[in-house]
Amino acid sequence: MQLELVSFKICPFVQRAVITLLYNDIPHTVTYIDLASPPDWFRTISPHGKVPVLKVDEQHVIFDSAIIDEFLNEISSGKLLPDDPLARAIDRSWIDFSTRLILDFSALIHATDAEQYHQRGKIVKSDFELLEQQLKQGPFFNTENFSLVDIAYAPLFMRSTLLSMDDELYPANQYPKTTAWAKTLLTIPQLTSSVVSDFEAIFKAHLQQQAPFVAKHLKL
Ligand SMILES: N[C@@H](CCC(=O)N[C@@H](CS)C(=O)NCC(=O)O)C(=O)O
Hints:
Blueprint: E1 3-7, H1 12-23, E2 28-32, H2 40-45, E3 53-55, E4 61-63, H3 65-74, H4 85-109, H5 114-134, H6 148-162, H7 176-185, H8 189-192, H9 199-210, H10 212-217
Parallel strand pairs: 1-2
Antiparallel strand pairs: 1-3, 3-4
Helix pairs in contact: 1-3, 1-6, 4-5, 4-6
């Protein structure tokens, strides 16, 4: 099986799949596309028109990061989700919530004026408040066991550490368990190596171009 991951360099959802591939030592190749002008073949393999897409072989393609991650876990260690059905379902629920948090945070970053910025900031704060209440003593979401839930949130934590954000832009600063969790995750080598080497520059250039209000606020 020669896996090929179709990627966009700054996509947090693709990054989840990369972390899972690296964590499990799964051989793979990565093909980068430009989402602003995707190649014709992309539409035929990605019904939602989104990355990540995992080409498993000439006939089989999987899409959606949560589904790709579960597949990668199942063909390797299988240890990245709990055995107990209820615990596994709870993990899937919080993976689903991470997508909401990433999208709410992305909406905040792309606010075009102060009013939108404040409104969206309140939504992100309430998301982080819910997440904080869910966290136990750590170091991981499932205490001692690193899991797909950690992988699902890690891309957000990585992006937030690259920017000097105030509490309104990044309310997680106010939540000690979330802060400690993020700090732990960012020491994991498979996580820090899951983006391209010029990720920071590309990400900041993207914000300058697509999110000028927040870029100015961050003095980028
Ligand atoms: N739920 C999807 C979300 C994927 C997603 O939104 N990817 C973005 C890039 S970060 C995308 O491909 N957007 C292109 C579009 O919406 O046209 C997943 O987890 O894989």
